[in-house]
Amino acid sequence: MSSFTVIDYIIFVVYVLGTAFIGAAFGKNQKSTKDYFLGGRSIPWWAIGLSVMATQASAITFIGAPGWGYDGGLTRIITFINVPLAMAFLIATIVPFFYKTEVYTAYEYLERRFDVKTRTLTAGLFLIARGLATGVVLYAPALVLSVITGVDVNIMIILMAVIAVSYTVLGGISAVIWTDVIQMVVLWIGAGLSVFIIFQDVPGGWGEVMSTASQTGMLESIDFSTDLSVEYSIWAGVIGGFFLHAAYFGTDQSQIQRVLTSKSIRESKLSLVLSGVLLIPQMLLFLLIGVLLYIFYQYAGDPNINNLNELFPRFVVNELPVGISGLIIAGVFAAAMSSLDSALNSLSAVSVRDFYSKFMKKNQSEEHYLKASRYATVFWGIYATIFAFFAGNLGPVIEAVNQIGSYFYGALLGVFILAIFTKRVNGTGAFAGVIAGMLAVWAVTVFAEISWLYNNLVGAVVAVAAGYAVSLLSKAPPKEKLEGLTIDRTKKDVQETLQDRAEAAASVEEVEEEKKTKRWPIYLVLYFFVVFAFLMYLQNL
């Protein structure tokens, strides 16, 4: 058994400082909020896709998912099996609207389609939900360092917050994405090394691992129970989880903002395809680490932990070779910084674009708004720090983040469905729909025993039904609230946008390339069935 040595500390410090330096370097060229929030719309698709992956593989996943795997095997992969379906839906519907309207935030689109009050409500809900979740994101890496150093986790939270806010203020979305690319590579290497080393320490190797995992039910993930209270049934995962991830990737500014940094609609869609394909194998990898740790400790003895969030960090520090521990913990720390700065950057974007410049300081210079954006980043860093003090009581951190969002995101998805797929719904109806959707989720949570994965489904369905019903009691929206903003105009508007770019010296091939993207949602649906078949195969071993 080893401990965190001087060599590990050196690797850790050098890696973190190097990442911070890269982030700060990008910040030097920021001249406007477009640079700060959208990276000048010049980020390549593969970097955006890997950035999304790095966010999912941050300290939240690195800590939470192995705890899931240790406690319940592959059961919770059901939460993510729906991701290809959600990405297929977003590629075919929501993404083109956001990109072609050239908005900074998703909620700007809602004002164009509905009214100011709907934009303000949805933007406010995002700030609340993402602000709370960011506190969990801050807690996770603080826990890692607390395990390593023995320093009280609350003190570590404060130290982490100071570093994170400073780094985020200097960086912009470009820094977020490009440092995420680095984190993605390092974290995958770290996870792969962890799996390899655990296999070496388990007598019997791969055969013994698979035999034990199968006998103990750790490889079982598909539960066909129709009982709505079964938390991770296939129906909860596919149906409820679809609404969870469609809402998260389609209405959460921290995700949409990445899509808006791409060079074209085609590249926006490509980034989502990449994420849709890789997110499931990534989650399987981290759950597998938890399964392996369960088998490892059958031989090595009880890990003696009080919190599943501590399981993997303790293994990394106590069991892995000198140098490897430093690299993995450095990667977790730096990835957490990337996840945190992306959340803070999006919170700042919504604060400034949807509130400050809209209601408080109109028609100011770009320099003024850029400065305001950095002040907003500091504010949200303090907000997240306060909530992080309570995050340790929420259970496995990855589940805590998803459950916080489930109270809000279903209703938000519902209002975007109303905006894109209907013509009769007006601003009053949309506003009422959001409120009704959230109240429905609260009622279900309090009075019904159903899986939390259904919360987003309930919120979305009620928001759509209530929004449409209320709209029928008042005037239909005017033509300017529909022209180019509903689904029947999407194809034409996309082609018009691409044609305009072609005429402005952009490649004419882009127009033809856009047509090819129509097949991508079909490929993602087929991929979903491949994943399902693979999980059934594992379950029957």
From TrEMBL:
Its main location: membrane. It comes from Halobacillus kuroshimensis. Belongs to the sodium:solute symporter (SSF) (TC 2.A.21) family. NCBIfam families: sss. Keywords: Cell membrane, Glycoprotein, Ion transport, Membrane, Sodium, Sodium transport, Transmembrane, Transmembrane helix, Transport. This is Sodium:solute symporter. It holds the Pfam family SSF. It is a multi-pass membrane protein. It is found in: Cell membrane. The lineage of its organism: Bacteria, Bacillati, Bacillota, Bacilli, Bacillales. The chain crosses the membrane at residues 6-26, 46-65, 77-99, 120-149, 155-178, 185-202, 232-251, 272-300, 320-352, 372-392, 404-422, 429-448, 454-473, 520-538. It catalyses: iodide(out) + 2 Na(+)(out) = iodide(in) + 2 Na(+)(in).
